[in-house]
Amino acid sequence: MRIRLSTLTLIPALALLFAGCGGDKTEQAPASAAPPASEGLTAFQMEHGIGPVTEPVTLGPLDQAMADEGAQIFQGKCSACHKFEERYVGPPLAGITERRSPAYIMNMLMNPDGMYAKHPEARKLLAEYMTQMPNLGITEDEARKILEYLRTQPTSAAGQ
Question: What is the pTM of this model?
């Protein structure tokens, strides 16, 4: 009995054969293995985050006009994932201005990728919520307005 093998049946077989062949069999860390979360971060970055804001942000009296603009930006870019008094896709934001510095909040808004890559607090949030905040292209001006809006919100979430 003669068996006919077509090229289509040989390709997967050859792929399996070559996949198991050769090469150094020593264990190596994956190329994507990340360094420890706080490795290389300055004291400023640990407190204020990683991103375009590189100096502490000093807040004066509440600017209601800025907060109103921040509310509109928040509704358009943030409210699909964040609530103030409850866990949603992302963490509840009540009291965020007491737990994080203004610069940290702004850096998280503008540079979530960098924060998740290197900052230990952002990594903890990612581990807990299993969803990374997307980079929404928020400008420094928008981040400052959102921050001003956040200042108008409750300072503690129910049950926390």
Answer: 0.73
Q: How far apart are CA 94 and CA 116, in angstroms?
A: 21
**Nearest to 81, CA basis, from 129, 151, 24:** 129
Residue by residue, pLDDT tens for the chain (160 residues) are 554 544 444 444 444 333 344 444 333 434 444 445 467 899 999 999 999 999 999 999 999 999 999 999 999 999 999 999 889 899 999 999 999 999 999 999 999 999 999 999 999 999 999 999 999 999 999 999 999 999 999 786 543 3
**Looking up tokens 């804001």, which residue turns up?**
53
Can you list the domains of the chain with their CATH numbers?
63-160 (1.10.760.10)
What element of type H or E holds 57? none
- How far from the centroid of its chain's Cα atoms is residue 124's Cα? 10
